[in-house]
Amino acid sequence: MTDKALPSSNWVGAEPDGKYDDGFNLDLERYWVEARGLRYWIAGIVVAGILLGLVVTLLSTELFRASARLEVSQITANVTAIDPLENESRISELQYLNTQYELLESRFMAERVSKAGNLLRSEEFVEAFALQGEEELTERDIEKILLDNISIDPLTQSSLVDVSFSSPSPAVSATIANLWADEFIAANYEKRFGANIEARDFLNSQIEELRERLAASEKELVDYANANEILVLETRAGEDGGDAATQTLIASDLSALNAALAEAVTDRIAAEAALASGDIPSRDPRSSLKVDLAKAEAELASLRSNFGPAYPPLLEKEAEVASLKASLATEARAALRAASARERELQGKLEQAKSSFLGQQNLGIQYGILKREVETNRQLYDGLLQRFKELGASGAGQNNIKLIDNAAVPRIPYAPSLIQNLLVGLVAGLVIAGALVYLRVTLSQTVKDPQDVTRRLGLPVLGIIPQTNAADIKEEVLSRSSELSEAYKSARTNLTFLTPEGAPRALMLTSSVPSEGKSISSLSLATSFAQLGKRTLLIDADLRNSRMQKLLDLDLGKKGGLAALLTSNAASLGEQIVKIDEFGIDYLPHGYTPPNPVELLAGPAFRQLLEEARSKYDQVLIDSAPMLNLADAVELSRLADGVVYVVEADRIKLRVIEGAINRLSSTGAQVYGVIVTKLKADAAGYGYGYGYGYGYGYGEDSSRPS
Q1: Which of 192, 303, 307, 589 has the most CB atoms around its CB within 10 Å?
Q2: Domains of the chain by range and CATH?
Q3: How many other CB atoms are there within 10 angstroms of residue 368's CB atom?
């Protein structure tokens, strides 16, 4: 019996503590083999994707896209020297542009465009999107359609942006794109100068109200003046700069009468003085009589000095002088009477004017109130009108968003694109197929690639057995040229290199579950060793559900087999062995099924039996029960020189196999490696095929030999 070695921690892919590396390893060859196995599914998925792209293209409605181009510049210019009511905010250009792009795609813009174009009642728009049957169509529905079909495409490294709209109608696409651009420009202008515009609207309404109030107050003033016969001749500035003092017709008459009366009094006084002194002013019309009188008196004095009193010319001149003096006295008295009469007349008229003026002064109080109201309304009106003009000049700022290109009516549809849809279908099919392969590899977690044994379990692969469709497995095993026989010969050769002395003397074969090819592997290896001329014993140690006897098609009669040897001291190994000449081996059948197989295998009887077999045979192979949740194989592994684990390709989860091997290793058993059975022909992609397209199975699980 060879010494047993502890489980090696120096496995390929193993961690220092003996655990294998379960990290991510991308095995392209594994995926390729899976893809080959699913090639018909993959081809079907790809073809279905392409056909789906073709069907979508044929059934899709043609769409037309129209684009308007805008320039969005953060730099603005004000054409007036008047500051706007709101200052420009200083933000980064990128932030500003991103904000404008978001605003272009906002529901705010959709609402503006919907209302501006009256799209809810636009027959062309409703017909383009086939909305005729919608009875409860709302503005919100229109807005959703607009947002679903609008696209904003900024041009890289520029301040230009394309506003595109797609629809089944080329005219509708161009109309909406242009309307969207125009409304965005208008909305931006309102945002920048909105305060000025609102102020102008407010002032305009106030100006209209004040205009009406001013007109009403002026009309009331005029009506009052007409009703009371108040005639204003002139307006004089008051102390506060306003038109507070006015000159009416009565006041003007009173002033004129007063001046005329003063002049009449002056004339009367002058006439009285002239009458008393005889001194006639030179400006008086009587001055000519005084000149004549002075001339006549001078001539009279000359005559008196030269002639006597009785001189006739002297007498005549004296009579002339007396006549002139009498005329002067008469005229002076007449002038005095005229001046007095004029004075009295003017005095009467002045009293009348004064009485009228005093009466009009009471009316002037109300007139002044109405006049001041008119002046107040006029001042307010002029002030608001001036501010309105200033805001109008301030609101004339230049818009920083400009329309560069209008959207033209597209001539050809941009969608659906046959090539694009076919490519999308092809890519989608490939992605789905790739996902299928990935899920198959990820979720299967079975031994598809024999190298999974080394990579995931840390054990060497001792043999790779192909799947075969041979009807008679026995013939395949006996035929030295068969693929199955050659595969087991290769496994036998690998077993001979396990130790310096060759293959371990007593090898146990087990598997995770029944029907993985464990029994066939045991028989084939035993036959292969026998063909080398070694005395070989095959022990059927599956005391629960052995299939070896059925595989060999033997009628053992009354032989008790292994069960008899373990329960009866009288039985001997030689008595229970059956020679199978066609395989060249000795066979120890399992015998009957005992009620306590674990106790029998764990007892000293089997140890003694194995020692006897080692002494008589060159090679002993033990066909053990599968691991399952049983302890049979675990107990046998402690007695055997080594364990060969049989794994059916693409059947058992690696986690299950790992757990079973850990159970064996934990008892001190030496697990030398794994024989992979029933490897399908498509595994040739891994480099383990034999080039003949094998395919074999042991039938259904219920009929498979274990």
Answers
A1: 589
A2: 28-58+416-440 (no CATH), 491-676 (3.40.50.300)
A3: 14
